[in-house]
Amino acid sequence: MITLADIIKARGVLDNIIHKTGLMTDNLLDETTGNRIFLKMENLQRTGSFKVRGAYNRIANLTDAEKEKGVIAASAGNHAQGVALAAKAYGISATIVMPRYAPLSKIKATRQLGANVILEGEVYDDSFEAALKIQQETKATFIHPFDDPLVIAGQGTIGLEILEALPDVEVVVVPIGGGGLIAGVAAAIKQSNPAIKVVGVQTRNMPSMFESMGQQKIVTVHGSATIADGIAVKTPGQLTFDMVQQYVDEIVTVDEDEISSTILFLLEKVKTVSEGAGAVSVAAVFNRLSHYQNKKIAAVVSGGNIDVNILSRIVDQGLVKSGRKVYLDTIIPDKPGHLWKLLQLISSTGVNILTINHKRDKRDVLIGFAQVEVEIETADEEHIYTVKKLLEKNNYCTQLC
User: Fold this and answer.
1) pLDDT for position 103
2) What are the residue numbers of the active site?
């Protein structure tokens, strides 16, 4: 089991290597939750994730013989960058096996750090199996992303920093994938002050540690795709499972809509970019921890390495769900002036017209008519209702989507 001394030793290794990330506060977070919320901004860490802490601590402790043979790892992206950065610092060759559908930004960043990237499998667990086969052939040292004492100790330095910055913290909320992050943070927290509550968070689409804790044994959960790719782990580690049993007070799950809306909230209101795995802790604070009130809560935003294309889709989806963007379909006579009349009517409500699609050749559109799809920017649901009622009053049959 990992001791507080192990974590303090890891902090010494990481001194002047990693950023000592700060705690960010936001009044809207406090008002919404009824608590005092502090965000531990590991999305601002080197490589954009906490993973560099554990990876660097592990590689710093390699023997000379191990360094000569190089290292290999499996990762959905963040551990990959941490291993690649540490290997480059020590002049060690690194091979990283990543899922085929890992975010392109993470694949590119890992290669730019000098690692040899192999794409194999659908999710992390598939890449893990492929990496083990390669390791048997090459005899390189396998750097496990979570079930390794030195990796866990490195992640535990986050717990030390939280305690130093906020000694009277009452609840610490941490994302869970394989369990390395929460195992290290919980060990640091509980061995320093057992009264502090530690809460783990998983995505409902891949709740492997949640299910394992419920059944009191390690179980494999095949789950489904999730935007929280960094914590999409089918099977928890044995060491991490044991430590979660010992130190973690509860585990909750959040769904995909809650994660995506939290990413949008953090971007728009807190002015910070979080990936799906990093946002689950804040999503839990919003949606699962109402039984905590008037508490000082630290939530670990574990990473910010999100593909810009995914981020764009999340923003668009969030705007639609919040009533700030809508697509309006209607049919108009295919005669001069009718499109102008429709757009003038829509504009009179104060909306912003973003795009217009004008089609005559659709199967269900009669000769002499055209279908018009207008993408509009609105203030809220009430604004949408105003537009719809005005069009209906003027004899337009409309559909909103």
Assistant:
1) 81
2) 51, 302
